[in-house]
Every structure is written in C-alpha cells, then in structure tokens.
Amino acid sequence: MVFDIREEDEERHHDDEFEEYEDVKQPERPKFYRRKKFWMFCIPNAIIAIIIAVVLALYVIMPKIAQGLMNKATIEFSAIDITNPSPSGMDIVMEGDMRKTGPFHAEISFPGTVTVSWNGTILGTTEIPGTSTAS
Questions:
Q1: pTM for this one?
Q2: Hey, how many other C-beta atoms are within 10 angstroms of the C-beta on 75?
Q3: Which terminus of the chain has a smaller tally of CB atoms within 10 A, N or C?
C-alpha cells in the first residue's frame, strides 16, 4: 500500500481555502425603497402620472360622460299657449320639463328658428331662447 501524502495535503488545503471565506460577511445594502436614488426617480414619475390622469379625467373622460347623459335627456312640453295672434306674429308661452338630465347642470340652446305648425298648417317660425337645468 502506497501512501501518497500529496493527495491528503490537497484535500486539506482545498477545504481550508473555503473555510477562510465563510467568516467574511458582505456588508448589508439598504433595501431598494430606503435608497435616495429610488425616491429621486419615483416621486417625479408619480407626480407626472397623477397630472396626466387628472388632465385626462377632466378634459376627456368627464365631458364624454356628461355628453352621454345629455344625449339621453328629454324635453316634454305640458302646455303651449298661443296669445296675441296677428297677421305678422304671435306670442307663444311653453311649459315643459326636462327629464333624465343626470347630476350635471346644463345650458340648453336652440340654434336657428323653430317652425310652429298645427294639423299640417304652418303657423309661423320663431326663435326659442335657451334654458338651463338645475342640478
């Protein structure tokens, strides 16, 4: 039996090499959210994202919601009184309700003229003043 001392020395030397490094500890790095660079990047990006979201909500989303509600609104006239008829004109008083206007205050206008007819006979044309809904 031949005994080779070099093999034993290599094994012992190899094991000793790793034992040296076991005691060395790496310094602990602070967690990512405790670093100044993280907050210097995160805060401006969060502010920009909030500004973009608010602008989109105010100028794109809310007007579309309001217009959708106004498109569903109806005007129902309960009484129309024609008084002071003359060859050149008449006075018209209309009473009505606006329904399904939603929670928004709205100004309603009637561009152009309105033709008033009864039983197929045109009585005249008029301009109707605008009105508003109460929220």
A1: 0.43
A2: 13
A3: N
- Residues 70, 105: Cα–Cα separation, whole Å: 10
Which residues are CB-contacts of 134 (< 8 A; sequence separation ≥ 6)? 105
What percent of the chain is modeled with pLDDT above 70?
A: 77
- Of 60, 129, 72, residue with least CA distance to 104: 72
> Residue with structure tokens 């920009």?
48
45/39 Cα distance (integer angstroms): 10
Of 4-13, 29-38, 112-121, the range with the lowest mean pLDDT is: 4-13
Residues 80, 93: Cα–Cα separation, whole Å:
6
Distance CA 74, CA 108 (A): 11
CB 63 within 8 A of CB 102: no
Q: Please list, in sequence order, all residues whose beta carbon lies within 8 angstroms of the beta carbon of residue 115, skipping any fewer than 6 positions away.
A: 122, 124, 125
Bridge pairing between strands 131-133 and 74-86: unpaired
The angle formed by the CA atoms of residues 81, 86 and 92, to the nearest 5 degrees, is 20
